[in-house]
Amino acid sequence: MLMKNLKWAKDAFIHAEQVYPEECCGLIIREENEVIYWKCKNISKAYKEKSFVIDPIDYARGEDKGEVLGIVHSHPDGELAFSHTDRMACKYLDLPFYLVEPKSESIIVIYPSEIND
């Protein structure tokens, strides 16, 4: 099954479209036997089109819902590639990072073990 056909991915694409031109951000959560997308607020103070900061309250509520499996965000009108900051955050948080691009319904993922920066 292609990742873009998963329910959480479809929900992430919708969220990215809703907040455009800002970056969306959210969590992939395992809630009992289901994997869901948990929409979070981007509280970045500046340049929301080029950066994201997940609202800690949203993150905590997501953790209360289930196990956090990964971090999702978008690059509106940008390159479908992880920035250096994305890579460092992925490694620091020790969670996979997913980048979604809703116009083409593309998703890429990077895992902490793949980062040697």
Can you tell me about this structure?
With 117 residues, this protein is of the alpha+beta class. The chain has a single domain (9-96), classed as Cytidine Deaminase, domain 2. The chain has three helices and five strands. It has helices spanning 7-19, 56-65, 84-93, and strands spanning 25-31, 34-40, 67-74, 97-101, 106-110. Strands 2-1-3-4-5 form a five-stranded mixed beta sheet, with helices on both faces. The radius of gyration is 13 Å and the shape is globular. It starts with 6 loop residues before the first helix and ends in a 7-residue tail after the last strand.
Please render the helix and strand layout as text.
Blueprint: H1 7-19, E1 25-31, E2 34-40, H2 56-65, E3 67-74, H3 84-93, E4 97-101, E5 106-110
Parallel strand pairs: 3-4
Antiparallel strand pairs: 1-2, 1-3, 4-5
Oligomer: single chain
Q: Spans with pLDDT under 50 lasting ≥5 residues?
A: none
CATH topology descriptor: Cytidine Deaminase, domain 2
> Architecture in CATH?
3-Layer(aba) Sandwich
Structural class from helices and strands? alpha+beta
Q: Please report the distance between the alpha carbons of the first and last residues.
A: 31 Å
Number of strands: 5
Number of H/I helices: 3
Number of domains: 1
Overall form: globular
Strand order of the largest sheet: 2-1-3-4-5
Tell me the β content: 25-35%
CATH class: Alpha Beta
As a whole number of angstroms, the C-alpha radius of gyration is 13 Å
